[in-house]
Every structure is written in C-alpha cells, then in structure tokens.
Amino acid sequence: MNLGESGQIYFKNGYILTMNAVNQVYACGSLLVEGDKILAVGEVDERYIRGDAEVIDLHGKYLLPGFVNTHVHTSQQISRGVGDDVDFITWLHKRMWPFESSMTEEDSYVSTLMCCLEQIRAGVTSFAEPGGQFVSGMARAVTEAGLRAKLAKSVMDCGEGLPEIWQRTTEEELEQQIDDLNKYHNTADGRVQVWFGLRTIFNNTDELIVKTKELADKYGVGVHMHVAEAKSEIEYTQAVYGEPTVTHLHKLGVLDKNLLAVHTVWLTNEEIDLFKKYDVKVSHNPASAMRVLGFAKIPQMLKKKVCVSIGTDGASSSNRMDMVDEMWLTSLIHKGWRLDSTVVPSEDILCMATKNGARALLDEEVYGSLEPGKKADLIVIDPHGPSMMPVNDRIAALVTAMHSSNIESTMCNGKWLMKERKILTLDEEAILKEAQERSEAIYKRAGIVLPDRFPVIY
C-alpha cells in the first residue's frame, strides 16, 4: 500500500495529544489518515474507514504531532566531536571553519542523511537548517529521507578569519540564495523549502541584512539567523554600532514575523518586548547554550507570549541532535538558574516542540497539531520500559522521563519513515559506514588532529 498517495491508516485506542488550540487530549482516541492528511481525530466515524485501511491498535500508546527542530546544522553532523572542551576561538578558527570549508557537496549530502537518521529516530518530522554551503546536497538528502525541511545557505559577506573559499561579496551571496530557491524551493511535494540565511552579525553587513529581508518578503519565505548568541557578540555590536544586536536589527527594519532568531541568549528586557511586538520567532537551543553561551530569558519570553520553539544546534556544538534530550534539558536549566521549580512546565515544552515549532517555520496551518485537514506528520510513543514507567503524570513523563528510544514510529506526509524502530526510507548501515569514512577524510584534509585524552597503546 502506497500510503503517500491514497491509502488509509486507522489508529485506535491511543492516548492522543492533539496540540490543538486548547491542547485537547483523548485518553482513548482514534485518528484516521488518508494519503498525506489527517481526516478525523478523537472519535472516528467508522463509515469513513475503508475496508483496505491499515488498522493500528495502539493499546494505550501515545500519538503526538511530530516534533519540529527549528535549528539544526545538517552539514555539521559528521563533524561530531570536533568542538569538545576547547575555547570558542579554537573551536571556530581551528576546528569548525576548517572542517566545514573542507567539505564537498557529496560530504554535505551524506552528513545531511546522517542528520536525518537521528531526526527520524528522535521523532522529528520537520526541521530548519540554518546554513551549510551546499543547499543542493541537503535538498537531495531530505528528499530521500522523507522529512520536511527549511534549508538555507550559511551566508557571510564580511568578518575576520574566514577561509578563502567563503570570502564572497554581498551580491554573490544573495545571487546564490536566489538560485537555490529557484531550483529547490517547494520540491519533494512541498516538503523541501528554501529560506534565506544570515550566519551572524559578526559576518553580515547591514546591506546584506537589509537586502536579505527584502528578498525574503518578495519570495514569501523566512530568514534564519543566529541572534544575540554570545556575550562577545553584544560587546562587538556595542563597539561597532553603539547598541546591542536586536536593537540594531530593529533600526534596520528586519524584525518581523518571518525572522527566526536563534539562541537569543543576550536579549535586554526591551528587546524581548520588540520580539513580541513584531512577532519574531525564537529557537531555543539549551544544550549548546549551556556549553558556552549562557541562559536565555525563556521564562520571560513565554510569559510575554513570544513564540519560542526548540532546536538542537549542530553536532559540533552539543553532539546530540536529539529533540527529546533538548526538551528534558529545557525542563531543567531554567528552573536551576532561576531557582524556581515552577517555570517552563512540561506542557509549555511540548507546545514549544510541536505547534510553536510549526509556527516558527511559518507552517502552523500545515502541521504541528493533530487536526483534520493538516498533514499526517505524527509519532507513536511506547512508554513501556524501566526508563519511563511507571507513568503517573502522562504529560510530564513525555518531557522529564522519555528517551528517544521510546519513540516507536515516525510518519511524515502520511508516509512511514520509521516503523517499530526500523528506518524505512534510508539504508541506515550504509550511511553510517560512509559517514564515518567521509568524516575521517575531512579531518585529514582540514589538518585537524584531536589529541588523545588518555595514554593509548596502538
């Protein structure tokens, strides 16, 4: 049965979290999928169920919308381990930039395949890529994996220490993005889309930032940018512009509903108000922030109804591209630094990982909740096992106790990407093997040598 076309799947006896406008839950509900869309949720009229439908008795397992990872560097997936326990300058100039600038398009393709494997296993059905160098390779991989993605090029037209291969003019960077958009936007049945990227204010001129916003509006897409990420960034913008990053972006006129601002660790209270006023979307990446960046004012943002979503960042920053881990970290770190165990509760975190993510990617009408007419992007979670049981508070357990190994099946656009923990769209073992080989070759080309941490006998 080709479930990507017109087949039906009928789920019954499930604990269904719809994540709709009121976060309706069905303790023993049903859901009907036909083709790539959801037909009915809750109590399904059996007259609509065809005789050839695939029937899945969930036996009380969870059914949720697929998670939305709003910030993941797919091109960094095979660089895992490159940035552990080193200072920021070493990480950037001696590790990350040499690695990324030594990658080929085929490397980017394989790295993205690896990233897609981890996303599928962690229940992600849609993600946003903030920018590698080869949108072409990324688009090919996402198409094959069956996921949804907003892809962008890593765009830089200034900055010290950039590898020669990345030194481009403003116009060259804009033209490349327009070319990528014309080739790959809305391909793979609309699953693959192209956004505009801005790496960081360190590496983006005002002219590039303004023109990028104009083009994003023209093409009806978003802008993906690292914003107020590090203390050193704010010190830089204060020295160069006499004001912090977000205040400067506001003066440039780029704060808007189609700006996805990543990290946002060093925002002033007034800048949070600007985010609310202009409906700027936030991607909170707790793992990478804990490494070197600091603690974003997420409790305050949520209180002021800023749209906050969750991202994993890249494997060079946190090594785990696992949204389940990120939800768990989100539930802990703000309680810790605020010394308040009531902030950022589990129900808010589930919203951040699902419908807020869809809204951040400008797709809230397409997916992010289980509602009739929306795309069939969903996951099945089996709580059975010692790590998650006994389950008493069912909602909190999804955030505070669940592991990605509890995610049994992942569906995107009505097609199974993983079923009963088996990846169906990709050859997992072949990808793992090639990714390891390519990673070792890139390390060698880039001249990166990771020192032995303990005495090793070869």
Give a brief rundown of this model.
The protein has 458 residues and is of the alpha/beta class.
Structural overview:
There is one protein chain. With 458 residues, the chain is an alpha/beta fold. Helix content is 37%, strand content 19%. The chain has 15 helices and 18 strands. It has helices spanning 88-101, 105-121, 135-145, 170-184, 206-219, 231-241, 245-252, 269-278, 286-293, 298-303, 323-338, 346-353, 355-360, 394-400, 428-446, and strands at residues 8-17, 25-34, 37-42, 54-57, 62-65, 67-69, 124-128, 148-151, 192-194, 196-198, 223-227, 259-263, 281-284, 308-310, 378-381, 407-412, 415-419, 422-423. The strands form three sheets. Strands 1, 2, 3, 4, 5, 15, 16, 17 and 18 form a nine-stranded mixed sheet that branches. The protein has a five-stranded parallel sheet with strand order 10-11-12-13-14. The protein has a four-stranded parallel sheet with strand order 6-7-8-9. Helix 5 links the parallel strand 10 (196-198) and strand 11. Helix 2 crosses helix 15, helix 11 packs across helix 12 (346-353) and helix 12 (346-353) packs across helix 14. Mean pLDDT is 95; it is low at 1-5. Keywords: Hydrolase. This is Amidohydrolase. Residues 62-417 form the Amidohydrolase-related domain.
